[in-house]
Amino acid sequence: MKNFFVLLMLISGNVFSQITTTPKDPLVKDPYFNSAQNAPQGQKVRLIHSDFFQKTPEKYNGNPYFSGNVQFEHQGSLLSADEVIFYEEQNFVKAIGNVKLQNADGSVITAGEMEYDGNSQKGIAKKNVVLTDPKQTIKTETLYYDRISNKAYFNTGGTISDASNVMYTKSATYDLSSKMIDFTGNVKINNPEYTVEGTNIKQNQNTNTADFFGPTTITNKQNPANQVYTERGSYNMNSKEVYLKKNSRINYNGKILTGDDMYFNQITGFGRAKGNVMLRDPKERRFMKGGYGEIFEKKDSAMMTDRPYAVKILEKDSMYFSAEKILAYQKIDQNNPIKKKSFLRAYRKSRMFKSNIQLRADSLTFNETDGIMHLFGKPIAWSGEKQVTGDKIEAYFDTENEYIDSLKVVGNAFAISKADSLNLKDEFNQVKGKLMTVYYKENKVNLAKVIGNAQAITYADDQNEKTKETERIGVSLSTCGTIEAEFEENKVQIITCNVGANVDTFPMSHISREKRFFPDFNWNTKDRLRKWQDIFLNTPGYDEVKYESDDALYNAAQKVIDDAKLKEEAKKPKRVRK
After folding, report:
1. What is the set of domains in the chain, with CATH numbers?
2. Which residues contact 372 (CB under 8 A, 6 or more apart)?
3. pLDDT class for 570, splitting at 50, 70, 90?
4. pTM value?
5. How far is Cα of residue 305 from the mean position of the Cα atoms in its chain?
6. Which PANTHER family match (predicted)?
7. Do 207 and 180 form a contact (C-beta atoms < 8 A)?
8. Residue 250: its pLDDT value, please?
9. What are the distances in angstroms from CA 484 to CA 437, 459, 481?
10. Taking a C-beta distance cutoff of 8 angstroms, is the pair 201, 223 a contact?
11. How large is the average pLDDT for residues 462-470?
């Protein structure tokens, strides 16, 4: 019996060696194999096992084929299938049915069909192709595989899935050595927390990072309005960190951050941007610009530096802010927990320009929701030809109707108004005290109420009945506990003067220039903001207006008094020393 089996094996080997594998028709390979036509003969594909061997002219153009638990081996890779056609001279095989290619690196390809060239070590798998390795699984209809470069490629559409992501793409190249996937065309990466959609993405499966080389959008699934867009950047899928380099923007909480070079962490909600930074808040009708910015998504706050400025967009008259640092943030409304209030803060050298009011201070805070602004550090406000200063100023705005309601001045309150803006005489109406509230009417200063050590210097005019021209009567000096002063055009009229009231009115001929000014008079024309671009300057540096002092009547009266004194002195008998 033993000799019989030995004889049978010899006969089988002799028959197999005499098989003619040259087909009746020449082998037509896919163009994918053409690059290896002139390649040197590679190591032969080797049969390991098959249950049956056949060769008939009617099937496979007369080429021999193997069936039943077929296994072929080539340089450490094992190919198994239901049926394999073997082109021995071309060192080429076609596998059909339940095809499986097991590679030495641990990767496995399964398919309905496969062609493999032993010379070029290239293969094409078709029909329900699945490539698996320790990092992910690729599914497609046609897969091109190059063992020498250790790369797999498909362009028939497919999915690539790993432990946390599922990627959909029309075509992709996978480097099994470097674990790098190069997606081309439209790509979608699906994650439980986000989706990535774009074109031309490269993903490193070792580091789990993706590089973007075309328009790409990362969308937060929990809040789809929160998105990251870029045309050049990278994304660390483990740490959820995004680095954005070209035409990028970050959408969060209804806001949009853009810049030349950006970073965002989806876990912490922290982001930063450098170069041409802009933060837009359409809901608040506000945008901020600067050279550097930071956002804190979870705190709903943002910070801007490097020549920052902010614009509150109003239909008729926008508000412009600047400082060395600007913050914008939102807080829960204590009276209504489902609503938020928006705030803006400007630190160091803060400025605000609006056509009907201009402000300067060391710092300011603005409650945009309620329209309340606080100014600290030598604040100063201008409206028309009127100026208000104090230790602290609170400004109240009706942002819905776009007008100023009032100013509240705390400590050393001082309001100054040019008595006649049509001339350059040094004549100024002045009201001062501890506390002052300035009321506006149609965006113009209308009334000032002063409490505590109230004082006023006001110019009184009257109309000449004959010439119908306005003539200066004199100057009133008022000292009261409280004062109400009405501002009407260039006139200031004391309406009430209560609590220890003392009012003296002097004709122009009886009051000197020094008594027409309070000691801390500080009319400032050099630093006033004349246009919105002045917010960027420490001081606009406008020329100080040179006012003329008209003391003709006073000087004439003084001359009369002096002459009278001289006459009186002359009448007195002179003593003669003997």
Report:
1. 381-577 (2.60.450.10)
2. 366, 394, 395, 396, 397
3. low
4. 0.78
5. 13
6. LPS-ASSEMBLY PROTEIN, LPS-ASSEMBLY PROTEIN LPTD
7. no
8. 92
9. 10, 15, 11
10. no
11. 73
